[in-house]
């Protein structure tokens, strides 16, 4: 037996033919808010031009100079990480066998606490900017429609405006302080279903855990999956899956190792308390297994044996999809995040097949 | 091979010698608030006598006549479930080989949003009432000190007042809207450590998930473990385990199948972000494995094989303790909640040994 160093193993991996990858979470951004000006009408445009508005901020100071991002993702010209298409192409698209990368953005119009019409206008401007400056540049890039869910009718209009664009595969809803099962948000689901768009959810800065924001960034970050747990439960309890039978969901960047617990807990509660929610027609786990995909990032430090134990607990290999989270600090590189020891078919499901089935013909 | 019916199997089980059990969660209560009057001084006593105060309420209507409780736990005289000692003795203490049952209460002084001194007075009155009306009646009964954590100095005084009572084994903190790692609450930990008391935590009515209370009871109930996750994270991040090196914790009635996920996620984040919290000296999972016990109830619907997978993921059989949650609807009967197929030693750990080690000499 020849023992290879880690570097040699990685080099060998790089040489062998690899299966295609779909990356469900790339956080592109602009170099400054001014890039949105051409896509905004007055009175909104003036608010940006006059510096009359301060974007929402995140309360934590970081202990590293690169803040939330991979140190090498900062363009040499000092522009923000994630704002340089060429660097992204070099570091992700051409670095790995990426067949498609789905943009998820960094700005979330849902984070605005006031002036909902302004939030919707910013969302539309951002969507137009992304289509022109990112999606148009590479056929491997698909994107999400950003809407302001605080105004569901406006969100639905935006979905109708862009929902059939060939570069658009999903609607992005921030997991912040809204449980989207609430019928208040159903106009968004109705519009998305009409255009065969996936509903994607990703945590956003306003998210708090059950006991608040936390005193440090690490505390906030550890608790992030709670938002995803609450969204899954909210969708189930409010009967969203039967009301919108064609709608598919994906929850990105909240991990997945908590999923067996949630499936069991939901089923156990449903068996005892289904009288309370007669519009829910079957076991919650069945809806979730068939209708929601979870991105693996950020993968946690557990063994391949534990990966397989978790998959056995889930009773399906169809729920996981891959994402890198570029350019954030906890970026998942394909070779290092999904253990090589996993069966080839499971790896293919995670890296490619499940996402391919999720987006269907939208990927062309 | 003789096939036995479920009834026959259960009957056989009942005949065979059983290992002792420690039940960590019994929700005793009074028949009415007036029972506390002899233990209250003015001006607090008058508030109850004059009906000047409305206890906090829980917003959900229930679809069953027995509400939150086992149908057979309601005393024939119409008094509240959990208020009749003899019925509890018959249904739990004498029904199973209970060596000790730890009372956890239903009233939580921490639930009061205002008038903190009144909350502390109610807590003290309740503690005195429990010691006289429950603990004094059976040597198998131990109890928790109820305090108002919103006033940590008052809570510490109450712990000093009752901390060495032989019937007292722990301090109860409600998991509602407070993350107890915050140094604001450390006077409570300091006092508990001085008296060798365990810190127990149990969810309470004010608890909300990351996205709010939920629209139905089932939604609220499914999301309950998020409070426990946030408490565990808060204790770790704030360095509580090194600051109070002798203090042990137990989190009751939030389940445990989410624990592997949380250990992994905490460790992964610690490896990358430990600079932010230099007072945390080792991997979070190590602190948690050694210092926190989790009660198994409410056990979820998963197989013995999955129990064993989860125990392998935890890498220890020392974290789980047993509880019934009497008289609540999701009561766990010993024979039915912990699978018979589990190894005997693991069952003994869950039913008895881990709790015995947790409380140490406090159990006599």
Automatic annotation (TrEMBL), chains A, B:
Signal peptide: none
InterPro entries: ACMSD, Amidohydro-rel, Metal_Hydrolase
GO molecular function, one term: carboxy-lyase activity
One GO CC term, this protein: cytoplasm
Keyword annotations: Hydrolase, Lyase
Keyword hit for Lyase: yes
Entry annotated with the keyword Kinase: no
Domain Amidohydrolase-related: 73-360
Gene Ontology biological process terms in this record: secondary metabolic process
PANTHER family listed in its UniProt record: 2-AMINO-3-CARBOXYLMUCONATE-6-SEMIALDEHYDE DECARBOXYLASE, ISO-OROTATE DECARBOXYLASE (EUROFUNG)
Name of the protein: Amidohydrolase
């Amino acid at each position: 037996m020849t023992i290879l160093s880690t570097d040699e193993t990685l080099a060998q991996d790089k040489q062998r033919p690899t299966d295609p990858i779909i990356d469900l979470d790339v956080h592109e951004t602009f170099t400054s808010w001014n890039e949105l000006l051409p896509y905004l009408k007055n009175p909104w445009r003036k608010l940006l031009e006059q510096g009359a508005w301060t974007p929402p901020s995140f309360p934590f100071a970081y202990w590293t100079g690169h803040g939330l991002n991979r140190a090498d993702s900062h363009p040499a010209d000092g522009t923000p990480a994630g704002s340089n298409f060429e660097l992204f192409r070099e570091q992700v698209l051409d670095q790995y066998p990426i067949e498609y990368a789905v943009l998820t953005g960094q700005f979330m119009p849902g984070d605005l606490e006031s002036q909902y019409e302004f939030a919707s206008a910013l969302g539309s401007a951002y969507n137009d900017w992304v289509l022109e400056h990112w999606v148009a540049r590479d056929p491997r890039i698909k994107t999400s429609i950003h809407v302001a869910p605080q105004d569901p009718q406006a969100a639905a209009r935006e979905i109708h405006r862009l929902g059939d664009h060939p570069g658009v595969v999903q609607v992005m809803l921030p997991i912040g302080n809204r449980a989207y099962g609430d019928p208040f948000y159903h106009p968004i689901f109705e519009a998305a279903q009409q255009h065969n768009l996936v509903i994607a959810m990703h945590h956003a800065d306003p998210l708090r855990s059950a006991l608040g924001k936390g005193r440090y960034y690490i505390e906030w970050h550890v608790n992030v999956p709670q938002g995803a747990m609450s969204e899954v439960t909210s969708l189930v309890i409010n009967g969203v899956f039967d009301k919108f039978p064609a709608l598919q969901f994906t929850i990105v960047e909240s991990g997945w190792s908590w999923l067996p617990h949630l499936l069991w807990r939901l089923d156990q509660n449903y068996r005892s308390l289904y009288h309370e929610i007669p519009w829910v027609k079957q076991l919650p786990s069945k809806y979730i297994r068939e209708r929601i995909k979870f991105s693996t990032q950020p993968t946690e430090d557990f063994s391949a044996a534990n990966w397989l134990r978790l998959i056995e607990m889930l009773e399906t290999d169809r729920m996981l999809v891959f994402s890198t989270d570029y350019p954030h600090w906890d970026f998942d590189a394909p070779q290092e995040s999904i253990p090589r020891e996993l069966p080839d078919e499971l790896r293919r499901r995670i890296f490619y097949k499940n996402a391919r089935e999720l987006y269907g013909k939208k990927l062309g």
